[in-house]
Design brief:
The complex is a heterodimer of chains A (156) and B (788). Chain A is an alpha+beta fold. In chain A, 33% of the residues lie in helices and 16% in strands. Chain A folds into two domains: 76 residues, Roll (Ubiquitin-like (UB roll)), CATH 3.10.20.30; 69 residues, [2Fe-2S]-binding domain (DNA polymerase, domain 1), CATH 1.10.150. Chain B is built from 19 helices and 28 strands. The chains are: A alpha+beta (156), B alpha+beta (788).
Chain lengths: 156, 788
């Protein structure tokens, strides 16, 4: 049995016939070949799979693809425009906010959502708001720095 | 841009690899999808210890989409997984090496032990089919604690290891230690548990194995820190395949921390099976599988004693450790609690006599092997907890007792086999004390006390042996491999440089650091350098990345290859400039005749090497491509002092880190930004061990109780402070970069600093001893117990 799915991913209309139990992250990775969104835990704890759905950060392993029917989904591949990185991506590079890069796409998507909700977030707020994203490499310090720097850039 | 601007050594160059990671273009193993591939799933034991009476896979084989199912019985001609380090016991006997089968042979020995590889068209079909496999178990009693495993009557895990003992090994002069203890003015004694940890790289282990009928060859994509070692062990020791027929690729790897060094059963079974099903097989661990089956770290139970004279000078140290190996010997398991542990017990101090005895024990748990620091965090924890306790008992200030015992003359031969080449321990201690504002601590403590809170300050002056390792020394100590590194520098005709390194980056930023080294040496822009790693099909050979060795050993191999490139370039330039080779100098990207303005740019010489129209063909081969193997002459010895300040709420037991200051000596530094990042990450893991993380198995059933992120407490952003980090430099004396390594320092120094701070804070509440992790529950209980 399969069901029809229609949604917009990174500005492009997508239509597919999928197994109804397909998770959004599986659809993004396997059907669309957008492998920038990662799976780190399958239990909604690590946040590596975070994408934006209609502008809000959502863990793509905790939602069925069919629940994103008609939604606008943005993945890490959809952030840069004309080869120019989003301020959050640029700040992660500038501040050394990534090492192995595996948690990074989810971390960047969560951070964008964070700054949209807290444009003037201080360190304490940033650390609290990153609660849903695990990084094993950086000790978070440079991620926190990057989010603060990107927030300043996004306010401009 | 002038030529001098191309020297970026010591600059925080932003990372070359970041762009692809930030735009979602990284290529990790799970992103690899060969055409027509199948999916593997491993049926794992639900029991910690059981005999397998019978496996019936007939229903499963008939399930939809199943391509093949293999159990241990099918793996004829496949050997067990080898251990890469032979430890010889105090009885003169080799360690016990019971078989480590790729899939269970008649018995399972831990929860998660592999029983069958199920291959199907989709992951769900493979998983559904696995549920149809009927395994008839005879469940046996299990033992998970290493001390319990040694008791008489404990369940016996391997026929070939009576009493569950792998070896008892010792280092040091026992008689000298006993004599020193006999005349000591003070003896400090501690019983220490070094808690078992689960590494948890955020990328789970994964593999994609393919077989080609065209050349009877195999390609394996795998999450590995050392693809050449993986290939060597898998082909020569387990599958009996020629190395030439297996290509191992470790593409972008999402963190390792030791856990991706080893040859694991999963990818070995998949390579074997890929020929049987004649299709590629893909497997990616679910996080629950990572918890169950990745090699764990630490798990020591130790009794330690320090003898001091009346002035607080260390006279001798005596240590006995029981170290868990888990159910099977993982690739480097045996050397972690011995060679990388007992040898570090001198720390930064002149302790003249040290004796350490280690008993390694099999338990019904996942195998234990190197995890960030690997032996050295355990040693530092023993030494620095002893020093803290001794100072507290004798009423000597924590900095003062360290100063009274610091090594200040180098080279220094320790009583536990290592020869420290250089160091400057006072400088790091002084700087860390400034950073931590130790002078203001008494006032902060008094202020906290007014609020009913307990403040504590903890020091950890750690040392590590890195730059692993001189092959001859390692070989004499039991290593079954060399520990050199390989670098190839290929200058292309148009002057761009491709560097092939046996080191592997899984977050460390080699593409940037190594490019800085090469570009600076050759006087070319960093963009003209490409670093290639992680592919046995492209790189001559390599021992990989662990033990903070990449720059000190792998970087030096590249330097040696660069030296050869420059030497050959001088010959070519001498010909082009019609000068004597001895008169040619190479500087800032130019070959010049000394004392003249005549020169050839590096690119011109490269072009001449590949278009040898005007070239000394009678004396010199064309081309400019050089390879070097570098085997270090000694370990490197990064060291430093970490100081942690905590505030404990006695009402709740919550420990808050108020400040963490780290001053480290890593020798010369190429990229300070990357080094700081490595320290931050290491500190987070060290603090994780001390405050949050603990792997727990049920004592009766051997079930893993901390098998998910809901149960195993990983450090999250809000758990950690902003670290203050600084460096002091005493360059390593025996490699040309003067580099010592920085990857593990944080994880080595932090646990003792934090736990010493907790003990300092709790001393006023009467608490004498508390083990890691210092969770609110444990701290609160300790405070309550001290009241009664």
């Amino acid at each position: 049995m399969s069901v029809a799915l229609s949604l917009t991913v990174n500005g492009k209309a997508e239509r597919a016939e999928i197994d109804p139990r397909t998770l959004l992250v599986e659809f993004i990775r396997n059907d669309l070949g957008l492998t920038g969104t990662h799976v780190g835990c399958d239990t909604g704890q690590c946040g590596a799979c975070t994408v934006l759905i209609d502008g809000n950060a959502v863990k793509a392993c905790t939602i069925l693809a069919v629940q994103a029917e008609a939604a606008k989904v943005t993945t890490i591949e959809g952030l840069a425009s004309n080869g120019e990185m989003h301020p959050m991506q640029a700040a992660f590079k500038e501040c050394h906010g990534l090492q192995c890069g595996f948690c990074t796409p989810g971390m960047v998507m969560s951070a964008i959502d964070l700054v949209q909700r807290h444009p003037n977030a201080d360190e304490k707020t940033i650390r609290a708001e990153l609660e849903g994203n695990l990084c094993r490499c950086t000790g978070y310090q440079n991620i926190v720095k990057a989010v603060a720097q990107a927030a300043a850039a996004m306010r401009r | 841009m002038g030529a001098n601007d191309l020297n970026t050594i010591g600059q925080s160059v932003r990372r070359k690899e970041d762009y692809r990671f930030l735009i979602g273009a990284g290529q990790y193993t799970d992103d690899v999808n060969p055409p027509h591939h199948t999916h593997g799933y491993f049926l794992r034991s639900p029991h910690a210890h059981a005999k397998i009476r019978k496996i019936d896979a007939s229903k499963a084989k008939a399930a939809p989409g199943v391509v093949g199912i293999y159990t241990g019985a099918d793996l004829t001609g496949v050997n067990g997984l080898p251990c890469g380090w032979l430890i010889t016991g105090t009885d003169g006997q080799p360690m016990k090496e019971p078989p480590h089968p790729v899939l269970a042979q008649g018995k399972v020995r831990y929860v998660g032990d592999g029983i069958a590889l199920v291959i199907a068209e989709t992951p769900d079909q493979a998983k559904d089919a696995a549920e149809l496999i009927d395994v008839d178990y005879e469940v046996l009693p299990a033992v998970v604690n290493p001390v319990d495993a040694l008791k008489s009557g404990a369940p016996q895990i391997h026929d070939g290891a009576p009493g569950n003992k792998c070896y008892t090994w010792a280092l040091g002069d026992k008689a000298a230690v006993d004599a020193a203890f006999a005349k000591a003015a003070h003896v400090t004694k501690l019983d220490i548990v070094n808690n078992r940890l689960i590494p948890n790289a955020i990328e789970p282990r994964a593999a994609v194995a393919s077989y080609s009928r065209a050349d009877d060859g195999y390609t394996l994509y795998v999450t590995s820190q050392n693809p050449h070692v993986e290939r060597l062990l898998m082909t020569a020791f387990v599958l009996g395949l020629p190395e030439t027929k297996v290509r191992v690729i470790a593409p972008d790897v999402g963190g390792g921390f030791g856990s991706k060094i080893y040859l694991y059963p999963e990818e070995t079974a998949m390579v074997w099976a890929s020929k049987r099903v004649n299709r590629p097989i893909k497997w990616t661990a679910e996080r629950s599988e990572s918890f169950l089956s990745d090699a764990h770290g630490r798990d020591h139970v130790t009794h330690a004693e320090l003898a001091l004279d009346k002035d607080g000078k260390f006279l001798a140290m005596r240590v006995h450790t029981t170290a868990a190996m888990g159910a099977y010997l993982s690739t480097f398991a045996s050397c972690i609690p011995t060679i990388l542990y007992a040898t570090l017990l001198a720390g930064q101090y002149t302790t003249p006599a040290i004796y350490c005895e280690v008993t390694a024990v099999f338990t019904n748990t996942a195998p234990v092997d190197a995890y960030r620091g690997a032996g050295r965090p355990e040693a530092t924890y023993v030494v620095e907890r002893l020093v803290h306790a001794a100072a507290a008992e004798m009423g000597i200030a924590q900095d003062e007792i360290r100063r009274r015992n610091f090594i200040r003359k180098f080279p220094y031969q320790t009583p536990v086999a290592l020869l420290y080449d250089t160091g400057g321990y006072d400088a790091c201690l002084d700087e860390a004390m400034k950073m931590a504002d130790v002078r203001g601590f008494a006032a902060r403590k008094a202020e906290a006390a007014k609020r009913g809170k307990l403040r504590g300050l903890g020091y950890s002056s750690y040392i590590e042996a890195c730059g692993i390792a001189p092959s001859n020394i390692a070989g004499a100590l039991g290593a079954r491999a060399g520990l050199y590194e390989v670098g190839e520098v290929r200058v292309n005709p148009t002057g761009g440089v491709t560097v092939f390194t046996g080191s592997h980056s899984h977050g460390q930023g080699h593409e940037t650091t190594f490019s800085q080294v090469v570009a600076s040496r050759l006087g070319i822009p960093i963009e003209n350098v490409e670093i290639v790693h992680g592919d046995t099909g492209r790189i001559p050979f390599g021992m990989g990345t662990y033990g903070s060795r990449s720059l000190a050993v792998g970087g030096t191999a590249i330097i040696k290859a660069l030296d050869k490139v420059v030497a050959k370039g001088k010959k070519i330039a001498a010909h082009l400039l019609e000068a004597a080779e001895a008169d040619i100098e190479f500087k800032d990207g130019k070959f010049s005749v000394a004392g003249t303005d005549r020169s050839k740019a590096f690119g011109e010489v490269a072009l001449a090497a590949y278009v040898p129209h005007n070239y000394p063909l009678d004396k010199l081969e064309p081309g400019l491509d050089e390879t070097a193997f570098y085997d270090p002459t000694n370990f490197t010895f990064p060291a430093g002092t970490h100081i942690c300040e905590v505030e404990v709420d006695p009402e709740t037991g919550v420990v808050q880190i108020v400040d963490f200051s780290a001053c480290d000596d890593f020798g010369n530094i190429i990229n300070p930004m990357i080094v700081e990042g490595q320290v931050h990450g290491g500190l987070a893991q060290g603090i994780g061990q001390a405050l949050l993380e603990c792997c727990v198995y049920d004592q009766e059933t051997g079930q893993l109780l901390t098998g998910s992120y809901m149960d195993y407490a990983m450090p999250r952003a809000a758990h950690l402070p902003s670290f203050k980090v600084a460096t002091k430099v005493t360059p390593c004396t025996h490699n040309p970069l003067g580099a010592k390594g920085c990857g593990e320092a944080g994880a080595i120094g932090a646990p003792a600093a934090l736990m010493n701070a907790v003990h300092d804070a709790l001393s006023s509440a009467g608490v004498k001893y508390i083990d890691m992790p210092a969770t609110p529950h444990r701290v609160w209980n300790a405070i309550q117990a001290a009241k009664h």
